[in-house]
Design goal:
Blueprint: E1 16-19, E2 23-24, H1 27-43, E3 48-49, E4 54-61, E5 64-71, E6 74-81, H2 84-102, H3 110-114, E7 119-124, H4 132-141, E8 145-146, E9 155-162, E10 165-172, E11 181-182, H5 186-200, H6 213-218, E12 243-255, E13 260-272, E14 276-289, E15 292-310, E16 313-318, E17 320-330, E18 333-353, E19 356-367, E20 371-375, E21 378-383, E22 386-397
């Protein structure tokens, strides 16, 4: 017999979207947290999907996670700290507490009303709860809305265990759960089974308010159980990409022993969730000395490493190599000369908004040779091959929406 969670809410809470795009934890830990959090949300009576009336957004990484719950124009936040399972547990509790503080009810839920044909309810035997996070994550990644109540679903996904292996079956919402089909890949099988069930069973058009009360009481939903570490194979659904793009524009100054000069920087970074990064930098140091106008341009590229020190503070260290182009103009005389150059930027980035950072950097650099200009035998301008400077920059984190497996051509 299947155990069921009684239907205790006359009006369902709003659908919740869980956004971990900017969470810089190791991929396996981020996916485990994603699945466990969505499972707890469903067990608490919320539907979860790729969009929602409420967004639970997780940022930060390392041992610090910043939890933000946004409902319309209102937002509540909390910072949690821990390692491994303790960090996941603290993050889940913070998200549930912030959701409870929102006291938000949407009737009817516009997300589920628009996605009735993509709403599923997951039914689990008592011995199969360990695989719930992987199944729910795979379904949500494929564009489904996982709801806690059969009355608002069109398909039922049945999760069981046979010979210590998970089994899955998907049927129309009015059909009973059959024996499951052994599955070695929960993500792929769950999506395929849901598609097959919809192909052979029409979407239910019944009005939940007209249902027989006895039927409503017997409607199966997810069995409430403590969240445990899943032993299932991680979901193969397309998730947030491993790399994140960052575009920065900075202004500062640098000194080259004999003189100081302004410095303008444009850089593009690619960040990997493991902490590795690649930076491409272009900076210009202009100067004027009498009739002599100078513009030194530094074009460099190189690897780096970064990690969150806090939910809103990130540390970065990079080493880049490239070319220094020394351009000058004296009257009608114009010329440019090139040298090899290298630089070592160190940055502290402060999160101002989910996709906006303020970067404060210091950098040390060296070029292949010093440069000097003489006018009538008198040295008019000179710079050492060494330089050191500081900059402040605005950095824009580019879009990281996960590619969904349900969309053809997604990458």
């Amino acid at each position: 017999m299947l155990a069921a969670l009684p239907l205790v809410l006359a009006i369902d809470p709003p659908t919740v979207e869980v956004d971990i795009d900017a969470l810089t934890l190791p991929q396996a830990q981020a996916e485990q947290l994603h699945g466990e959090l969505m499972t707890r949300l469903v067990e608490s009576g919320h539907a979860v999907g790729t969009s929602g009336a409420i967004v639970v957004r997780l940022t930060g990484g390392g041992e610090h996670v910043h939890v933000e719950v946004q409902h319309g124009t209102r937002a509540a936040t909390r910072d949690v700290r821990g390692k491994g399972a303790l960090l996941r547990l603290a993050t889940i509790h913070a998200a549930l507490e912030l959701l409870a503080e929102q006291d938000a009810v949407v009737d009817p839920d516009p997300v589920r009303a628009a996605a009735r044909d993509r709403s599923v309810v997951v039914v689990a035997e008592p011995g199969a709860q360990a695989w719930l996070p992987a199944v729910i994550e795979a379904l949500v990644d494929a564009g489904q809305v996982v709801t806690p109540h059969a009355a608002s679903a069109s398909t039922r996904v049945c999760l069981d265990v046979q010979d210590e292996r998970p089994t899955l079956a998907a049927v129309g919402i009015d059909e009973p759960c059959p024996d499951g089909t052994p599955s070695s890949d929960l993500g792929g099988d769950a999506v395929a089974l849901v598609s097959a069930a919809r192909a052979r069973a029409p979407v239910s058009t019944r009005d939940p308010k007209e249902e027989d009360p006895s039927t409503e009481e017997a409607a199966p939903t997810i069995v409430p159980a403590p969240v445990v570490r899943t032993t299932a194979k991680p979901s193969t659904g397309a998730r947030a990409p491993a790399w994140t793009g960052v575009l920065g524009i900075g202004l500062g100054g640098e000194g080259r022993l004999s003189a100081a000069e302004p410095l303008v920087l444009v850089h593009g970074d690619a960040r990997h969730r493991s902490g590795a990064m690649i930076t491409v930098r272009a900076s210009v140091a202009p100067s004027v000395e009498g009739a002599l106008a100078i513009a030194d341009t530094f074009l460099t590229v190189g690897p780096g490493w970064g990690r969150p020190l806090h939910a809103r503070v990130r540390f970065e260290l990079a080493a880049a190599i490239g070319v220094a182009i020394h351009g000058y103009r004296f009257g009608d005389d114009r010329e440019a000369r090139a040298d090899v150059t290298a630089e070592l930027p160190v940055t502290f980035a402060f999160v101002l908004a989910p996709r906006l950072e303020l970067g404060l950097s210091v950098l040390a650099g060296v070029s292949g040779r010093p440069r000097r200009h003489f006018v009538d035998g008198v040295r008019e301008w000179s710079r050492s091959r060494w330089r050191i400077g500081g900059l402040a920059s605005l950095r824009f984190v580019l879009g990281r929406k996960p590619a969904r497996r349900s969309k053809a051509g997604a990458t």
